[in-house]
Predict the 3D structure of the following.
Amino acid sequence: MPLLELDGVDAAYGELRALWGLDLRVEEGETLAVVGANGAGKSTLLKTIAGVMHPTAGRVRFDGRDVADVADHRRVALGISLVPEGRRIFRSLTVQENLQVGAYSRRPGPWDLAAVFDAFPLLADRRNRIGAHLSGGEQQATAIGRALMANPRLLLLDEVSLGLAPVVVGDIYRALPTIAAKGTTVLVVEQDLGQALSVADRLQCLLEGRTVLEAPAVELTREQVAAAYFGLEEAP
Amino acid sequence: MSAAKEAPHAVVRRGGRSSVAGAAVMVAAVVVLAVWVPYNVSLGGLTQLVGLFSLIILATTWNLLAGYGGLVSIGQQAFIGAGGYGVIYLADAVGLPLVIALLLAAVVAGLLAFVTSFLVFRLVGGYFAIGTWVLAEGFKLLTTQVDALGGGSGLSLQAFSGTDRVTRIATVYWLGLALAVIVVVATYVLMRSPVGLGLTAIRDDVKAASSLGVHVRRWQRFVYVAASAGAGLAGALIAVNALRVSPDSIYSVNYSAFMIFIVVIGGLGTIEGPIIGAVVFFVLQQQLSSYGTWYLVALGALAVVVVLFAPTGVWGLLTRGRLEMFPLGHRVEVDRPAAAGGGRAGRRSATRA
Amino acid sequence: MTWVNAVVQGLLLGGQYALLACGLSLVFGVMRIVNLAHGALAVTAAYLTLWLSQRTSLPLVVCLVASVLVFAGVGYLLQRGLLNRALRGGELAPLLVTFGLAVIVVNLLQEIATANSRSISIGGLATSSTRIVDGLSIGVFSLLTLVVAVALIGLIQLFLSRTAVGRAMRATSDDPGAARLMGIDDRHMYGLATAIAVGSVAAAGAFLGMSTQFTPGYGDLVLIFAFEAVIIGGLGSLWGTLLGGLVLGVAQTVGAQVEPAYGILFGHVVFLAVLALKPSGLMPRTVTA
């Protein structure tokens, strides 16, 4: 049984439809990268899984259970944590407090303050600095650490690389194998194909709200993905 | 819209047949109030109707402030008081003719609003609201310290001594009706001008308006001064109608309660809403007057329910936005002869939200 | 010595204002709502405490605690039932709703309890005082009020900075959407914040009723003084609110020393002066969310 299963999901912002009958599966323990251009529906997909948006049709199952009637703030207790686009860390709280708030749902598991500081050493030095005074990379690390504190079974990462310097992005992506090694299933949404291919077991490419390519990462070349990404040819 | 593609004869117009009919009803109502009512209603009834006229002025100007300027004030009684004391002082102590004193009192209230705006405009949102109230309390305390204004006991109007009761009440009645009509029409004209367009933009979205180059603070200050001058005018009318002012009643925060309830119940951000709300309020106040302050409890509850469940107010519920007696917006109509549009049609394509 | 006495009495009076104001400050800090029914709720709590102490044989302290608990519950329900809904209606709706509530409450009190002034009897405590030197003595009850104010503000601060729920409340204040992603129900947090605020204003109202005569309309003054304390101190800072309360208290007693009728007016003048010269208040919050 897949950990996460989407069947024919439609989602829309009012009149504007963002997802068209989307199917998606994530097995426990794997890392899936969802790629696509701006407006492909990637963020909508994550919001729908996290319960921030509600699908207008189709089903979202987590661990075999239909989660349609579970509110966003209750999905954390089930084990779904979203690192939102734009990071949205709590600006008046210190790094450590941000992380502590992440543990609000008190799910047991391997992640605690020490484990997060281990995975993101730069945060340990900044633990008493407030969110408003952090750099973009520090904010992103805090946001991921904060989500990990809930000990999620499924970690949703939205555009981790957005607006960050390449060297910082590299630092953050280096922590992902550590996360996967602790048994956390990861669904990462990216525009940066190189980073996506480097961490993912499997890759799914969206174009205008529909899947145009889906395959294990090792079987794919950058060119194939790029062609699907821009909609240059029919998916194989 | 795809309709525009199919029908090239789209026309931008203001109002329509319904608003012509609406305007006719309004004009008829004013005519009845002006020529029939004074000869068929008791003197006590006329005095009460002057109360309704001052409520219409208060509600219309508060609506200008909150509904269009986005400024919730609960301290307009500062300017009601300034107008009330102003008219009696100017008429009796200075000796100006009553009408001049009345208008000048409104100007004084506007000037006071301009000066004090530099203080209260440092506060935003709810703190602006209470800040204006503190200002009103300050005005009240200062007034009680001035002997020329009668200290804590207030002033009585002497200008009418020697005038018989019928003439006095009739004069005040017509004066009140004229002022209410002038304030409503002036507000309407203001809202149809480019100023109104800027204000509507502020009401809809302050941030977007300022990024579009609307000088939000300047317009808000203008609205604050205009609305406070209107409150001063209403205060002067109240004082002339009652023949006296005292600090505790003319500076009462209840006036703010009245204004807010009237506008909210009638329909915030419309010209018609405050008039409808004032009539509803007036009738309820008359009907429930034997039950003490229960009418305020009922009105408060009604206002809360309206804010939460029907934010467009009674007027919005009645018309669902289809009818405007005072058309402010521009509407695109399709497949009608272009000639019917009227002179102003088509100059702007904004549609009122 | 009369001036020293005026300042000392002002500080003691300021304790009462700080106690009245801290709930207003907390609710604004968490939700950016100004609760215009704050003063009306304080006075209602004074009536409830009075009623309990007259109708039951319970000690006054128990009556006070009971009404604090009742009002905390009322605050939670008020937030979950009305204000959360109002929050979704933009900036004007919470103001209009709380103002409507204030008018309803005051007029209901007027009808039920009449406009006669009342006070809660505390026996000898009302008059007992400690003489420091000649011409300067400190009332035991007003000192107790100040101590309670400082303790309450300290406790709320401790709650906000040291407990998981307190951190969650601050996080919700920064970004309610992100807080929901952490498993925090923002509506529940708002409910708790208002419960604390209304509970604290109930305590403040009871203390007020023990120190002075009150009527249903007294809530207007309460709201204004609490508001002045919050603005003088600086928005979003509870210790600032304490300072603001003390400054307001001193301004009023020193003003009254100059001329008895000037007390409240001096308070307003100091408030307006702070607004003109240092509009962010004396102890503004350093981070704006």
Q: What stands out?
A: Residues 4-88+156-230 of chain A form a domain with the Rossmann fold fold (CATH 3.40.50.300).
